[in-house]
Design brief:
There is one protein chain. With 404 residues, the protein is α/β, with parallel strands linked by helices. A seven-stranded mixed beta sheet has the order 5-4-13-14-15-12-16, with helices on both faces. It has a six-stranded mixed beta sheet with strand order 7-2-1-11-18-17, sandwiched between helices. A hairpin with a 4-residue loop joins strand 14 and strand 15. Helix 1 runs parallel beside helix 4 and helix 1 packs parallel to helix 9. The protein is globular. Bound molecules: flavin-adenine dinucleotide. The site of flavin-adenine dinucleotide (FAD) has 32 residues, from helix 1, strand 2, helix 5 and helix 9.
Length: 404
C-alpha cells in the first residue's frame, strides 16, 4: 500500500471520518478547518443505514448512541398546539423521519475529531488560498501564509466549498428546492419534551422545535422562495428577514423569534443539492456535501458523508494509483448518492403546504402513515433507502463494534 501525505479540508463529518480511516492505514494526514475553533452549532442530523455500519466499524456506535437527542418521534401540531398527527421513532424500523440515531451535528463532529486526533494533525483557522497540481503532488498555499506539498488533497468543505470552486470552476451544479431554512438554538421551554414538534402555517411556512441532549431546544424556521442570496447577508440582516417572514404567526413562533437575537449559532441556508459530473480531478477529490450534498430534506447527508469517506479511504488503501482509487470510490458511491438525491422538487410544498386545506390534507395523510396501504406509499418521503449500499470490507484497522 502506498503511504501518502494527504491534506483534508473541513473538520465536520466527512473530513474527520476520512482522516480516521486514512490514518488507520498509516497515511500522514492533516485536516485544515477554516473556522477559527471547533464549531459546536448545528441542528440534529441522523446516522442511518450504511452510515451506521461505518460508525460501528469505527467503534463509535455506542458513543453516538450515548449522545443522541433521545427524541421519541415527531408530532404535527396546529396553532393551539393540538396534536394533528404523530409518527414515532419506531415507525419504519427506526429509519423514519426521526431516525434511531439523531445527534447534534456539533456533537457528532466532536466525537469524530476526538476519535481520530491521536493520529491526525488538526489545524483550525486556516484554509487553502491557492493550489497547483504538479507532476509529483499538489502545492498548497494556505491563507495563513505557509506553503506545503501533498500527494493528494481532499475537500470536505460542505455545500459551499471554496476549494471545489478553485479546482472545478463552474462544473458544479446546484439543484434548488426553492426553500430557505434557519436552524438555531434557543432556551428550553416548558412544552419542549421528547418529541419534535412541527407546525405548518399557510404560505408554506414551517416552524419546528426539537429537544436536544444539552438542556436547550433547536428551532427551525423554513420558507419557500427561489434562491435570492439571503444566505450571504450579514447575520443581523438574516435575523431581521426571519422576523419579517414569520411575523404574526401563532403557536410558539413569538417565543422563537424573541430568542433569535441572542442565539449563539444561527445556520441559515438555501436548501439545494450539489451535482457534479465527477468528484475528482487529478490529485484532488471531493467528499461529503462538497461532492454530493443531498440536502437536509433527504435525511441522508451525514450517512452519505460517512460512507463516502469510508469508501474513499478504503480505495486509496487498496490502489497505488490515486486515479484508480478515485474511480473506484465514485463507482461504488454514485448509485447510493443518486438514489439519496432522488427527492422530488415539490417535496417542500408537500411537507409545508400553502393553504389551510393543504395542511389539513397533509395531516390526514400523516395520520395514515403507519397503515398497511399508505406506509409503502409514504416511505418514499418519510424513510430514505439508507441501507442501499453494500459497504466493502477493507484491510483497515478500525475499532470495530457490533450493533447493540
Ligand atoms: C456549522 C454547521 C451547521 C450545520 N447545521 C446543520 C443543520 O442544522 N441541519 C442539517 O441538516 N445540516 C447541517 N449542517 C450540514 C451537515 O453537517 C452536512 O449535511 C453533513 O453532515 C455532511 O457533512 P460534511 O462534513 O460533508 O459537510 P459540513 O458538515 O457542511 O462541513 C464542512 C466543514 O468544512 C469547513 N469548511 C468550509 N469551507 C472550508 C474551507 N474553504 N477550508 C477549510 N474548511 C472549510 C466548514 O467550516 C465545516 O466544518 C451543518 C454544517 C455546518 C458546518
Amino acid at each position: 500500500m502506498k503511504q501518502r501525505k494527504i491534506l483534508i479540508t473541513g473538520a465536520s463529518v466527512a473530513g474527520p471520518t476520512l482522516a480516521y480511516w486514512l490514518a488507520r492505514q498509516g497515511m500522514d494526514v492533516t485536516v485544515v478547518e477554516r473556522a477559527a475553533e471547533f464549531r459546536d452549532g448545528g441542528q440534529t442530523i441522523d446516522v442511518r443505514g450504511a452510515g451506521k455500519i461505518v460508525a460501528q466499524r469505527m467503534g463509535l456506535e455506542s458513543a453516538i448512541r450515548a449522545k443522541t437527542t433521545h427524541e421519541h418521534g415527531i408530532t404535527f401540531v396546529d396553532e393551539r398546539n393540538r396534536t394533528k398527527a404523530q409518527i414515532g421513532v419506531e415507525a419504519y424500523d427506526g429509519n423514519g423521519p426521526i431516525a434511531e440515531l439523531e445527534i447534534l451535528r456539533g456533537e457528532l463532529a466532536k466525537l469524530l475529531i476526538e476519535h481520530s486526533r491521536d493520529k491526525v494533525e488538526y489545524r483550525f483557522g486556516d484554509s487553502i488560498a491557492a493550489l497547483e497540481e504538479q507532476a509529483d503532488g499538489v502545492q498548497v498555499r494556505f491563507e495563513q501564509g505557509s506553503v506545503a506539498m501533498f500527494d493528494l488533497v481532499i475537500a470536505a468543505e460542505g455545500v459551499g466549498s471554496h476549494t471545489r470552486k478553485l479546482v472545478f470552476g463552474d462544473e458544479v451544479k446546484r439543484r434548488s428546492f426553492d426553500l430557505y431554512t434557519a436552524y438555531f438554538t434557543i432556551p428550553r421551554g416548558p412544552g419542549d419534551a421528547h418529541q419534535m414538534r412541527w407546525f405548518n402555517a399557510p404560505g408554506g411556512l414551517c416552524v419546528c422545535l426539537r429537544p436536544d441532549n444539552l438542556g436547550t431546544t433547536r428551532a427551525l424556521l423554513s420558507f419557500q422562495e427561489p434562491p435570492r442570496g439571503y444566505e450571504k447577508l450579514p447575520l443581523a440582516q438574516q435575523k431581521q428577514l426571519l422576523k419579517e417572514k414569520f411575523k404574526g404567526l401563532g403557536w410558539e413562533t413569538p417565543r422563537i423569534l424573541a430568542a433569535l437575537d441572542d442565539t449563539p449559532d444561527l445556520y441559515f441556508d438555501q436548501i439545494s443539492q450539489v451535482k457534479m459530473a465527477r468528484w475528482s480531478k487529478g490529485r484532488i477529490a471531493l467528499v461529503g456535501d462538497a461532492a454530493y450534498c443531498a440536502s437536509p430534506i433527504s435525511g441522508m447527508g451525514t450517512s452519505l458523508g460517512m460512507c463516502g469517506a469510508y469508501v474513499l479511504a478504503g480505495e486509496l488503501g487498496r490502489h497505488d494509483s490515486h486515479t484508480e482509487a478515485f474511480a473506484a470510490y465514485e463507482k461504488i458511491m454514485r448509485p447510493y448518492v443518486d438514489q439519496a438525491q432522488d427527492v422530488p422538487t415539490f417535496a417542500p410544498r408537500l411537507a409545508s403546504p400553502h393553504s389551510r386545506t393543504g395542511i389539513a390534507i397533509g395531516h390526514a395523510l400523516l395520520r395514515m402513515a403507519d397503515t398497511p396501504i399508505f406506509k409503502p406509499l409514504l416511505a418514499k418521503f418519510l424513510a430514505p433507502k439508507a441501507d442501499a449500499l453494500a459497504l466493502p470490507e477493507y484491510q483497515m484497522a478500525g475499532a470495530s463494534e457490533r450493533a447493540a
